[in-house]
Amino acid sequence: MRFHHRTTRLRAIRALLATGLLLAAAPTALAVDAARPETPAPADEVKLYCETIRQGAVDARAAWQARALQEMEARLERRFAELTAQKREFEAWLARREEFLKKAEDSVVGIYSRMNTESAAAQLAAMDRDTASAIIAKLPPRQAGAILNEMEPGRAAMLARTVAGSARK
Questions:
Q1: Where do the Magnesium transporter MgtE intracellular domain residues begin and end (predicted)?
Q2: Is 0.85 topped by the overall pTM?
Q3: Is residue 106 part of a domain?
């Protein structure tokens, strides 16, 4: 029995020591808890976080928008330059075309003015109305009259009306 009594005594001493250590540590733990700032509620934490990062987020968004605007402006300027170059190229092509057509037109009128009236009438009768009218309008009046005289009367009248209408405009 004696052995059992000794074991019980050691257990009691250990329990008292553990309790004493806990009581000695308790004021320290309470002091640490008191030194900590009061933690805000979760909703307050979110609000505090949002307020903390708000200005940085506003600045980042403004910087992003400024970069996006600069990129769009650069693309717009490049496209404008491309279109301006295309416009100049088209205008040059149009000027060359107009010059060619004028030379060709003068040349064609010269050819018809030297043709036999019967042959010229047959060819002009086969052409579309606008082209035939343009050629007749540029021919000297005597030759134009001789060519129209050789044509079928309905076609000659239509061409004469077109020439007269274009002379008024």
A1: 106-161
A2: no
A3: no
